[in-house]
Write a structure and sequence with these properties.
The protein contains nine helices and seven strands. By secondary structure, the protein is an alpha/beta fold.
Length: 229
């Protein structure tokens, strides 16, 4: 309150002095691969109107979710409890599957890794590739064993066979069969309001060099394929 509010015009004036006549847009405005402008400064005035129903940082849409990729359940458990004590409020377990390492998808392995975790409070997500249905079954069994009702369970199975194919170059099942498994997994989560079955993740395409438009297009194409299945 002891300082007057700074204006964008004041900031721009100071920048112009530093530029000494150089073109503002050429020097300070960057372009994405799709030609979208990235300005050097954004303020609250640049924020778009909030969309109805869109989750915000103050709502229920955001989690601090930590990925744990550890094959030893005891070591995974120690790291998970440390992260939860430090402020993490959701966990992703990387499950050993074709293309990457991680925990065994069996019930005893997941139970040991999640020992001491409040499963009715902490969302559990999976990164399990083609072994997602098996890992999901083990996680659902663990929820029941721990006394967590279907309505209390929170998490994400993150099954995405098309992304797995793109990432690893292979699938055990033909694509139509993999999509049928995806549809079946959706049916199994019908009674779990806090659990999602599938994922369409743009990170794979981003890391492969896709532009913003390509990334969004590939995500939407994946979603459409799952909806059709």
């Amino acid at each position: 309150a002891d300082f007057s509010a700074a204006s964008a015009e004041q900031w721009r004036g100071l920048v112009e002095k530093i530029l000494k006549g150089a073109d503002f847009d050429k020097r300070l405005v960057a372009k994405t691969a799709d030609g979208l402008a990235i300005k050097p400064l954004y303020t609250r005035a640049d924020a778009p109107p909030a969309a109805a129903g869109c989750p915000t940082a103050r709502g229920l849409g955001w989690e601090i979710r930590q990925l744990h990729a550890e094959h030893d359940p005891a070591k995974a458990n120690a790291a998970i409890l440390e992260d939860l004590a430090g402020g993490v409020n959701a966990i992703t377990l990387q499950i050993a599957a074709p293309g990457w390492f991680g925990l065994d998808y069996t019930g005893p392995s997941l139970e040991r890794a999640l020992k001491g975790v409040l499963l009715d409070v902490c969302p559990i997500a999976l990164f399990a590739g083609e072994y997602t249905p098996d890992a999901a079954g083990s996680l659902m069994a663990l929820w029941r064993k721990s006394g967590v009702s279907d309505a209390q369970a929170k998490g994400a199975f993150n099954y995405g066979p098309l992304a797995t194919l793109a990432m690893t170059g292979a699938l055990y099942q033909p694509i139509p069969k993999a999509l049928a498994i995806a549809a079946d997994l959706i049916a199994k989560t019908a009674g779990y309001p806090g659990v999602t079955a599938l994922v369409a993740d743009g990170n794979l395409w981003h890391c492969a060099g896709a532009s913003e438009a390509q990334e969004l297009g590939l995500i939407l194409a994946e979603v459409v394929a799952y909806l059709r299945a």
